[in-house]
Please model this.
Amino acid sequence: MSQSRIDLRSDTFTVPGAAMREAMATAEVGDDVWGEDPTVNALEAYVAELLGKPAAMFVPSGTMGNLVAVCAQTHPGDEVIVDRENHMVVYEVGGAAAVAGVQMRFLDPPSGVPSPREVELAVRTENIHYPISTLLSLENTHNRRGGAAIAPALIDAAADAAHEHGLRVHCDGARLFNAAVALDCTPARLLERCDSVSVCLSKGLGAPVGSVFASDAATVDQARRWRKRLGGGMRQAGVLAAAGLYALRNNVERLREDHDNARLIADALAAVPGVRLLLPEVPTNIVLAECPIPAAAVVERAAAAGVLVTDMGGPLLRAMTYLGVSRDDAREAAQRLLGVLSSLAA
Model:
């Protein structure tokens, strides 16, 4: 009998359950581009209140949420200050450069968030030769920094430094609810000093599609024009928004289960000689490990053992837990990965 496959490549592999599908099937809909989809309107109002922002807008993806954030808060030729490992830099196809016409000024903070001094030093002084620094972009949780949940005090300090120099602050909050659960605080508290945020409804929350961009009303109005320009104006989008509403009302607290399952896997990998975990101060549902051999070899051998994980480049391996990966799945995956890594490291 063949063994079951356990997919830990990404929390994007969640699928909607029966109750979420029912909510989608029965959603009241209208034309959202005209502002007349009642379920989209309800989602936007709910998220705005949840995040402590005046307004919000439903978008098809987190990538679009981040892109409209940049487009609405910068001008071509401006500069965005950002961690070099930020999702916008690594995984969003250069959209900020290609569409918004901005360039990035890279920082390398090990924690995932720059110190006030790092922000201050990165801001361009007034000089005809320099671009204008207009936006600081943060990420919480931080994917490539080990799924780190960034504490409010660190966000506040970086944002305050940016504001002192006239910059706005955006947060890529694709997994913001993971951070809020791990830090035992509200999502709004994490965003008190941020001018805008994009949160995903998929991933650990389990909706099949969609993110929400939130900010002040004027910035959301600008972002809405950019959404239309980028082809993100959807019509009867309430069938998707209904999934997001269900996810927010039912699937936030259960993110703790994913964090616990990730820690189980991390503990197993830590027992292998030569494996170094990139474990942040406050971990969530992401396990990053440096292997003693190229991660590609581990991925291939793990797949043969029925566990799918991700090669993050060089020796870096990633495993992610999410809705649909049970405690038993995590235990089994941990044992299989332990066996694979132990045999390869021998």
Remarks:
- The chain has two domains: 6-14+254-345, 18-250.
- The chain is about 40% helix and 15% strand.
- The mean pLDDT is 96.
